[in-house]
């Protein structure tokens, strides 16, 4: 037992330190359990064939189908159209809409889809997005509590019941407590949360659509925009952009060029092979000292300074802001290694991390939550919105908003989602097989391609869950589960079963603030099952408490990728989540302890 607890402790430390990727940490924990003799080879590998893992993989594909066919985007568009203008009304609609969508889709995917819509709604209503983005995140987290497929912890506790030979939860077993928490969350945010949320100045709100000018102001472009022209005797004439290496040498970006010294000419793209000609006008972005150095050494003539980056200057070009997601392929790479410009035909101008612009952006390795300001043709910028795995577009110029979804397949995706709902509700097929059937149908009917299906799956999440499931087995085999459950019953049992549930809730909530909520549930669910067994009580309320607690990632921005995704566009600080989320988390715990025994008699 000591060995297993030691491995578990080291695993938790690695999770919280983020020194290694989560899936690699899980794999190392699995290997440590096997090499220490805590589990057999078959037990170590059993997680990869577990129905929970298979079900989750298929659910990612179904969610991908709803995204690729534009169903989710249209949902966001409906919200933008019918949201209204009152702050209270908007908050209710945002939280309720987010919860409804995330009841059937990944909460991370839901918030990524709805961020642009909510930002647009806020601007239309003359509000700062800060007032709505945290409620959006909380709505997505609560939505996971509404159905069996809402979030991975729900599937984990259901599988725990099945393995124990007990009646599993149904598809809507989670709905009563989930709806209760949603109502509580909306009431709390409307009457108290909004009072605690920061109130940015008027400069951060507006009733106009987002433009490239707004992004330029947000990224402090004033004094960093320059136009220079190439005279016949300029040393740059005849060289290619790649040969200049302005970005690597001086940190200067070439935003575009106008040929033949025509200020009214449309801005043209530049690539590494673009050859500079006499008389062309270069549009540069960089630090004044570096640009001055370039002018002095290369014989360039400076033209009147640009005070702004307006549509007139841009022509058919623009700026956009993208936010890296948890499973981004760009994480851990430098901008050069990511080949962002070559892959997406846009130029990365600035890199912002936790609200601060980073200097020498090319030397930094990208992290989850980083935001990139990019420049390019509107067509290329719009194309960024079809990317779902690596980043989400949080700021897009209003000059163009067309996106190439498979709208003609939207009705098929909706029918498939309804079919999945029916199959799971009435138990016509086992959960894993029902979701697999719908996922396969989504590919066969053209809702998404096979490549899109694979890209829709969060492989890191699946590997993490598969590797952590043997940890639960090792804890049970070693007596660790019985030991912890016994301690809870010994110290909290005399106070009543609700206090034992409160202990489980606190344990799960504490862990899930710093490590994956799925990994937390895998560890705590067997303890809840054993605690109920030792007390001679039905375990359903105990396991439901664990599931709800795992989704209550309200108190810190690092508790969930959902919170981190809204942190930058909402301009939140760490303490904003603590001030708003901690009281809500405590309220949900109290409500759960009061309501769960009513929904699931002990």
Can you describe this structure?
With 602 residues, the chain is α+β, with helices and mostly antiparallel strands. The protein has 3 domains: 386 residues, no CATH class; 85 residues, 2-Layer Sandwich (Alpha-Beta Plaits); 83 residues, 2-Layer Sandwich (Alpha-Beta Plaits), CATH 3.30.70.1450. Helices cover 57% and strands 8% of the residues. The chain has 28 helices and 9 strands. It has a 5-stranded antiparallel sheet with strand order 7-6-8-5-9. Helix 1 runs antiparallel to helix 2, helix 10 packs antiparallel against helix 28 and helix 25 packs antiparallel against helix 26. The longest helix is centred in the C-terminal third of the chain and has 26 residues. About 2% of the residues have low confidence.
What structural class results from the helix and strand content? alpha+beta
Instruction: Report helical residue fraction.
Output: 55-70%
Mean residue pLDDT: 83
**Amino-to-carboxy terminus distance:** 30 Å
Radius of gyration, Cα only, in angstroms? 26 Å
Number of domains: 3
Question: For the largest beta sheet, what order do the strands appear in spatially?
Answer: 7-6-8-5-9
Global geometry: elongated
Detail the poorly predicted runs.
202-209, 399-403
Strand content: 5-15%
Biggest beta sheet attributes: 5 strands, antiparallel
Quickly describe the structure.
With 602 residues, this protein is of the alpha+beta class.
Chain-wise SSE layout:
Elements lengths: L1 H16 L4 H14 L5 H5 L5 H18 L2 H12 L4 H16 L4 H18 L5 H14 L8 H12 L11 H22 L15 H7 L6 E5 L11 H4 L1 H5 L2 E6 L22 E5 L2 H11 L2 E2 L8 H4 L2 E8 L10 H4 L1 H5 L2 E7 L2 E2 L13 E7 H6 L7 E5 L14 H16 L5 H14 L5 H7 L2 H20 L1 H13 L4 H16 L4 H19 L4 H12 L9 H7 L6 H26 L3
Helix pairs in contact: 1-2, 1-22, 2-22, 4-9, 4-20, 4-21, 4-22, 5-7, 6-7, 6-8, 6-10, 7-8, 7-27, 8-10, 8-27, 9-25, 9-26, 10-28, 19-20, 22-25, 23-25, 24-25, 24-26, 24-28, 25-26, 26-28
């Amino acid at each position: 037992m000591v060995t297993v607890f030691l491995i578990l402790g080291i695993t938790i430390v690695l999770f919280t330190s983020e020194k290694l990727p989560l899936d690699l940490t899980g794999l190392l924990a699995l290997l440590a359990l096997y090499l220490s003799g805590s589990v057999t080879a078959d037990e170590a590998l059993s997680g990869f064939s577990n129905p929970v893992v298979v079900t989750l993989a298929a659910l990612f594909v179904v969610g991908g189908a709803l995204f690729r066919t534009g169903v989710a985007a249209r949902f966001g568009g409906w919200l933008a159209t019918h949201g209204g203008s009152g702050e209270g009304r908007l908050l209710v609609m945002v939280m309720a809409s987010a919860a409804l969508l995330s009841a059937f889709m990944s909460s991370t995917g839901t918030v990524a889809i709805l961020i642009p819509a909510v930002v647009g709604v806020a601007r239309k209503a003359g509000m700062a997005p800060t007032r709505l983005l945290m409620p959006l995140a909380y709505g997505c987290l609560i939505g996971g509590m509404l159905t069996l497929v809402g979030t991975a912890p729900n599937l984990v506790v259901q599988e725990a019941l099945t393995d124990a030979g007990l009646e599993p939860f149904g598809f809507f077993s989670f709905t009563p407590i989930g709806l209760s928490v949603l109502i509580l969350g909306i009431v709390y945010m409307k009457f108290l949360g909004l009072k605690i949320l920061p109130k940015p100045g008027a400069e951060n709100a507006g009733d106009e659509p987002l433009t490239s000018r707004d992004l330029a102001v947000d990224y402090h472009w004033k004094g960093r925009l320059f136009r220079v022209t190439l005279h016949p005797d300029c040393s740059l004439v005849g060289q290619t952009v790649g040969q200049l290496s302005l970005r690597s040498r001086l940190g200067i970006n070439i935003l575009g060029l106008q040929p033949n010294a025509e200020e009214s000419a449309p801005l043209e793209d530049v690539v590494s092979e673009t050859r500079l000609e006499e008389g062309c006008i270069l549009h540069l972005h960089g630090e004044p000292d570096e640009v001055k150095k370039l002018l002095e050494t290369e014989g360039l003539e400076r033209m009147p300074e640009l005070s702004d980056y307006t549509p007139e200057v841009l022509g058919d070009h623009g700026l956009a802001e993208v936010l890296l997601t948890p499973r981004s392929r760009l994480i851990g790479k430098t901008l050069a290694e990511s080949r962002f410009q070559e892959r997406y035909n846009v130029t990365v101008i600035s890199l912002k991390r936790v609200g601060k612009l980073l200097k020498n952006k090319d030397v930094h390795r990208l992290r989850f939550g980083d935001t990139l300001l990019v420049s390019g043709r509107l067509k290329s910028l719009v194309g960024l919105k079809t990317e779902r795995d690596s980043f989400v577009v949080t700021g897009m110029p209003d000059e163009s908003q067309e996106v190439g979804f498979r709208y003609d397949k939207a009705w098929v995706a909706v029918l498939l989602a309804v079919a999945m709902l029916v199959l799971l509700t009435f138990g016509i097929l086992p959960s894993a097989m029902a979701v697999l059937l719908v996922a396969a149908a989504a590919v066969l009917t053209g809702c998404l391609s096979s490549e899109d299906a694979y890209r829709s799956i969060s492989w890191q999440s699946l590997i993490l869950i598969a590797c952590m499931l043997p940890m639960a087995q090792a804890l049970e085999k070693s007596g660790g589960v019985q030991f912890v459950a016994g301690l809870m019953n010994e110290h909290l049992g005399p106070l009543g079963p609700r206090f034992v549930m409160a202990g489980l809730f606190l344990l799960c909530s504490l862990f899930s603030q710093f490590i994956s909520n799925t990994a937390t549930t895998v560890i705590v669910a067997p303890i809840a099952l054993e605690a109920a067994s030792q007390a001679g009580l039905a375990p359903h309320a105990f396991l439901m408490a664990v599931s709800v607690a795992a989704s209550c990632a309200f108190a810190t921005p690092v508790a969930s990728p959902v919170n981190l995704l809204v942190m930058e566009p909402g301009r939140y600080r760490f303490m904003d989540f603590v001030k708003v989320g901690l009281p809500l988390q405590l309220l949900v715990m109290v409500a759960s302890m009061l309501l769960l025994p009513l929904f699931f008699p002990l």
